[in-house]
Design goal:
This protein is α/β, with parallel strands linked by helices. The chain folds into 3 domains: about 5-140, Methylthiotransferase, N-terminal domain (Rossmann fold, 3-Layer(aba) Sandwich); about 145-390, Alpha-Beta Horseshoe (pyruvate-formate lyase- activating enzyme), CATH 3.80.30.20; about 395-480, no CATH class. Helices cover about 35% and strands about 20% of the residues. The protein has 17 helices and 21 strands. The strands form 6 sheets. It has a 6-stranded parallel sheet with strand order 2-1-3-4-5-6, with helices on both faces. It has a 5-stranded mixed β-barrel with strand order 17-18-19-21-20. It has a 3-stranded parallel sheet with strand order 7-10-13, with helices on both faces. Helix 14 packs parallel to helix 16 (about 365-390). The radius of gyration is 24 Å and the shape is globular. The N and C termini lie far apart (about 70 Å). The relative contact order is 0.07. The structure holds S-adenosyl-L-homocysteine, iron/sulfur cluster and FE3-S4 cluster. Iron/sulfur cluster binds near residues 171, 177 and 178.
Length: about 475
């Protein structure tokens, strides 16, 4: 059997894409390996959102150079966003790469590998650039192929991503995503529903809907428009699906109909990722985010008011072009008052080809970016920890995802030592609450995939710790006559 090694970086879109690529190659008889040395095909599913992510891939490719010299039959492929972004530059920097495949051409991978293997030479398949045709033709060149699912490729078979939208049209000045993922396109609701029903039939309990601005989802025209909230109501009807999540939300599209749906639908996770990016109007303008801090605050107030107990998370970029100390302090103010469950904080990384790179200087020194990043992270951690402490003594409902990280390690070491993995009765498990908080507790492997009650006795910024609430079965007294 041919062996496939695949490494995935980047966002959830890429995780889903890799699942689909693996499913397609399994159909061709491939099996997975975690060792590049024995792999017949090595694929890197890449990300271009920051320079660091790209440089890591070039380093990984560098480490494969010798292996390729020793075994010229090994097929090496760079797929996903960096393939679309760098195109032939990848061949120039790593001439022993055989395949470059953009996110819109992933379904061609099995055929392209065959072409390489039968002596066809280097293969490249990418989509049109955002100025290389009509909107129609560019959109068509970014098609994705979603129906091929492979439960064995997911971390857990009872959780799955479902793409509802591809691409992005927001063109924030710092961001490469609209170039590499193409125009925003919403999938037809009946395709999404069919896929969710199929997943539920295979035992999937939790679906996470994916889109770069997932809540901008809209399908159809005139009278027959399906809004994002309509889609959630329909998905909510599917038997077997117990939890519905979605990422990433665009602040301007947090409409009341969506908030009402999240509040009223019991299967809807009370968790919303709504990146602010900055707390300064000057910065938001330079980023062309399309809203002011005042509008973001109004949206957040409405969200907290309408959905009791909701957890909101955010992304921030520090050190974007022209960010002054005052701008940064305004972002800190927003973090301080917003009580985000968590914030992802990134140092601005200039991306060639974006409006930001063309028009705005990358003028904040790296040490200032780093210092701001650390300062904001420290503040967010303080808030996360204080808010997690509020759960002490409470019971929460947890969907159990699997072994905790430390239990995974222990199990791995035991397997390596040849011991039975199932010998232990009590293992440390991890799962998430309805508002996406991570909970770690001692339990039994049988509980993986179940939703159970956990009593919380400790908490830090990232994790709640608890014990299983024993359910006392009411004993009925039966009098025999
Ligand atoms: N579609 C999502 C985010 C996609 S990228 C949204 O609009 O929110 C994920 C995060 O990476 C962004 O929210 C942003 O905070 C960060 N990011 C994007 N481009 C970046 C860049 N050039 N430098 C640093 N961070 C960036
Ligand atoms: Fe990038 Fe902005 Fe689109 Fe998000 S909304 S993917 S940050 S361009
Ligand atoms: Fe990266 Fe592409 Fe996602 S650039 S963040 S993997 S859409």
């Amino acid at each position: 059997m041919p062996k496939l090694y695949i490494e995935t970086v980047g966002c959830q879109m890429n995780v889903l894409d890799s699942e689909l690529v693996v499913a397609a190659l399994r159909n061709e008889g491939y099996e997975l390996t975690s060792d590049t040395a024995v792999a017949d095909t090595v694929l890197f599913n890449t990300c271009s959102v920051r320079e660091h992510a790209e440089e890591k891939i070039y380093s990984a490719l560098g480490r494969l150079k010798n292996a390729k010299q020793q075994n010229p039959g090994k097929v090496i492929g760079v797929i996903g966003c960096m393939a679309q972004n760098h195109q032939r530059t990848v061949f120039e920097r790593a001439p022993y790469v055989d395949l470059i495949v953009g996110p819109g051409q992933l379904h061609q991978i099995p055929e392209l590998i065959r072409k390489v293997q039968s002596g066809g030479g280097q293969q490249i398949e990418v989509s049109l650039g955002r100025k290389e045709g009509t909107r129609e033709s560019i959109a068509r060149s970014h098609e994705s192929f979603d129906p091929l699912r492979d439960p064995t490729m997911r971390p857990t078979p009872f959780q799955a991503y479902v793409r509802i939208q591809i691409g992005c049209d927001k063109f924030c000045t710092y961001c490469i995503v609209p170039s590499v993922r193409g125009p925003e396109q919403s999938r037809p609701p009946e395709h999404i529903l069919a896929e969710a029903r199929q997943l539920a039939g295979e035992g999937c309990k939790e679906i996470t809907l994916l889109g770069q601005t997932v809540n901008s989802y809209k399908f159809g025209e005139g009278e027959r428009i399906t809004r994002f909230s309509d889609l959630i109501y329909s998905l909510h009807e599917i038997d077997g699906i117990e939890r519905i999540k979605f990422v990433t939300n665009y602040p301007k599209d947090m409409t009341d109909d969506l908030l009402t749906a999240v509040r009223d639908l019991p299967k809807c996770s009370k968790y919303l990722h709504v990146p602010a990016q900055s707390g300064s109007d000057a910065q938001l303008r330079a980023m062309r985010r399309g809203y002011t801090v005042g509008e973001y605050r109004e949206m957040l107030a409405r969200t907290y008011e309408q959905i009791p107990g909701v957890a909101v998370t955010s992304d921030f970029i520090v050190g974007f072009s022209g960010e002054t100390d005052e701008d940064f302090q305004l972002s800190m103010d927003l973090v301080r008052e917003s009580r985000f469950k968590n914030s992802f904080i990134f140092k601005y990384s200039e991306r060639p080809g974006t409006k930001g790179a063309m028009l705005l200087p990358d003028d904040v020194p790296d040490d200032v970016k780093r210092a701001r990043n650390n300062e904001m992270l420290a503040l967010q951690n303080e808030i996360s920890e204080a808010d997690n402490q509020l759960f002490l003594g409470q019971n929460v409902q947890v969907l159990v995802e699997g072994l905790s990280k430390s239990a995974e390690k222990k199990a791995g070491a035991q397997t390596a030592a040849g011991e039975s993995r199932n010998r232990e009765h009590v293992v440390q498990l991890t799962g998430r609450t309805m508002c996406d908080r991570i909970v770690v507790f001692d339990g039994n492997r049988r509980q993986i995939g179940e939703t159970i009650d956990i009593a919380i006795y400790d908490a830090n910024a990232h994790t709640l710790f608890g014990t299983v609430v024993v359910q006392h079965v009411g004993l009925e007294l039966v009098t025999l006559r």
